[in-house]
Amino acid sequence: MLTLTIGSFALAIHHLLLILALALATLVGWQVAKRGGENPESVLFGLFLLGLLVARIGFVLAFWQHFQNSPLKMLDLRDGGFMLWPGLLAVIAGAVFWGWRRVDLRRPLAWGLSSGLVFWLLASFSSSLYEQGTRLPEIALRNASGESVQLSSYQGGPLVINLWATWCPPCRREMPVLQNAQKQNQEVTFLFVNQGESMQSVSTFLETQGLNLSNVLFDSGGQLAQEVGSMALPTTLFYSAEGRLLRSHLGELSDASLAQAMESFDKEHSKSAQQADPARNTRTCQTANC
């Protein structure tokens, strides 16, 4: 499951885990402070914002080539572009700083922050393991000619599946990004799976927007969204050549966030190469001049 859906409201699971971690840290810190010390609630919230800020800065620096021509895109957080480790280190450094300055804050802050981080890391790791263990769904969709095609027939190489609809503003904004990526990454198959709309309306939309997308498929009943556990649009899924889910992205993609997500294919390729040659790193030299 990639999202928690309540009525028309959908929240990404990893966002939910982050909110729950902050709530747990605040609750534990408050309980410890009741037995002596200063309530760390405001400091924890400040550290949360600091972590997000530094994580965003780290992401921008790592993918600067995608921002240098449009600096204002750095402020557009809708692409979900963050780097974990810079943000995490900033939170820990900030906690050490506040604990050093305010003695009464040390114990409640340490307990609250530790409990929140442990919960978040374990829950995120478990969620990632579950997500990456899922396979490409065995379902049939319709292509632009109205013919039935098996989703599994696209398996065999890196695969990106985008769930979208013409009425979805973030979907419309990210389409040029995905179209450019499709042109620049010929070794990757991109599937654009429309959710619940007619072929005529989709065709009209693509024509009026000047979009030339390959592999547009139609999922009239929303089967794929149900199978992968995401009712939010847009949702983009990244599958290995073996049909194993490597990564998912909920929400709008920018050039930078798509480049970050596409790194999953490079990591998978390196992993596969090592598995194909397990003795590569253990070979010993057989000659004196090696």
In words, what does this structure look like?
The protein is α+β, with helices and mostly antiparallel strands. It has two domains: 3-132, no CATH class; 140-255, 3-Layer(aba) Sandwich (Glutaredoxin). Helices cover 50% and strands 15% of the residues. It is built from eight helices and nine strands. The protein has a seven-stranded mixed sheet with strand order 4-3-7-6-5-8-9. Strands 1-2 form a two-stranded antiparallel ribbon. A hairpin with a 2-residue loop joins strand 1 and strand 2 (9-12). The radius of gyration is 23 Å and the shape is elongated. The model is unreliable at 280-290 (pLDDT under 50).
Decide which structural class fits the backbone. Answer: alpha+beta
Q: Tell me the overall shape.
A: elongated
Summarize the biggest pleated sheet. Answer: 7 strands, mixed
Topology as a string of helices (H) and strands (E): EEHHHHEEEHEHEHEEH
Number of structurally distinct domains: 2
- Main β-sheet, spatial strand arrangement: 4-3-7-6-5-8-9
User: Radius of gyration over alpha carbons?
Assistant: 23 Å
Mean pLDDT: 89
Helix proportion of residues, in percent? 40-55%
As residue ranges, the low-confidence spans are 280-290
Report the end-to-end length measured between terminal Cα atoms.
52 Å
Beta content: 5-15%
How many β-strand stretches? 9
Question: Keyphrases for this structure?
Answer:
8 helices, Glutaredoxin, 290 residues, alpha+beta, disordered C terminus, single chain, elongated, 2 domains, 15% strand, two-stranded antiparallel sheet, 7-stranded mixed β-sheet
